[in-house]
Amino acid sequence: MNKKNEMLAVDEAIRRVAGAFKPLPSVQVALPDALGRVLAEDVAARLTQPPAAVSAMDGYAVKAVDVASVPVTLTQVGMSQAGQGFGGTVEAGQCARIFTGAPLPDGTDTIVIQEETDADGERITIKESAQLGADVRPAGLDFTEGEVLLKAGRRLTARDLGLAASANVPWLRVRRRPRIAILATGDELVMPGEPKGADQIISSNSVAQSAYVKVLGGEPVNLGIARDTEESFRGALAGAKGADILVTIGGASVGDFDLVRQVLGADGLDLNFYKIAMRPGKPLIFGRLGDVHVLGLPGNPVSAGVTSIIFLRAAMAVMLGLDADALPDIATAKLGRDLPANGIRQDYMRATLASGAAGELIATPFERQDSAMMARFAEADCLVIRPVKAPPAKAGDTVNILRLDLGASAF
Q1: Per-residue pLDDT tens digits for 299-355
Q2: Is 288 left (phi over 0), alpha (psi -120 to 50) or beta?
Q3: Interacting residues of 214 by C-beta distance below 8 A, sequence separation 6+
Q4: Which among 212, 178, 213 is positioned nearest to 22, based on CA atoms?
Q5: Number of H helices, E strands in the chain
Q6: Where do the domains of the chain lie, and which CATH numbers do they carry?
Q7: pTM over 0.90
């Protein structure tokens, strides 16, 4: 096992982070409030849909044997509409007018669409024959009472909510949203829109991290900016009480003003690891301070973003009851340009995606991969993953990629 002062392999770091968490308790929410939430319990239908055989078209409900030979004239004896069916029975030689979604009258088994009929008062001439069961939706075609429609662990889409509503389910049990406290550190930081000194920079990381947390299904708690003093840092930490994870940004390396490790260490941080064999994102702290897990991210904005996508996402997936083994979502693509051999750290190269002539994905890494270049990170569609000591690669070679479209589809 790697020692704490050695660089940890990315896969082992993901395993340790994911293994430190367990699913959060469930809460009950009203159906309209469940979009994007993760189911904590299976959802079973409370009724059968459709509850009885219904028509899929406007036309006439008939007995198939009566229309086997056409043309034939039948007598209309009633009408069936959605919400108001025909209460009588259709006998041989008879039919009933019917509309889409209406229940089939007793005695009928087939629908003849209205375009294939001529009506003269109650005398209905059938011009085209219809097979038994034509344009009939049988009872339970969609689902039956008690059938499990949605499994626990599913992130709910708009389609899922529509399905639950049609199954007469007004409330759902979902996982509580993970509470993620976010604390940026450094004298050099100011918030967007604030007056900026000559030696200061904008604190973009806290804004981005809050957005990541929301996209991943959590509740961000922004603790602001801690200055480079122990007093400021400890004062800001008080806001992390009750959080599931404290995410610190910056101060994770070994500089004179990097207080995160020394302050947390003095306060009893149970350190799991603090260096990972990856680029960007080598200095990354993971441990536990009392009841709160701590994830200390690098200060460079791309490094912070990449490590969140990999490690914070894995932790939140477990808390939400998702399959952490399936994260990150690795896909494959063809390289869009040649790449040199890689070094001793697993590389995550920002890249754009395009479709090739045969429909294949083509990932083209940017020429410059500086971890301070947020414009390139925002432009990227994916990260091309270069394993430790990977040999040179040519355009057209197959590579693993990590797509950056993290959010669950609303549809």
Answers
A1: 889 999 999 999 999 999 999 999 755 556 789 999 999 999 999 999 999 999 999
A2: beta
A3: 220
A4: 178
A5: 8, 26
A6: 10-24+176-326 (3.40.980.10), 35-46+146-175 (3.90.105.10), 54-137 (2.170.190.11), 330-403 (2.40.340.10)
A7: no
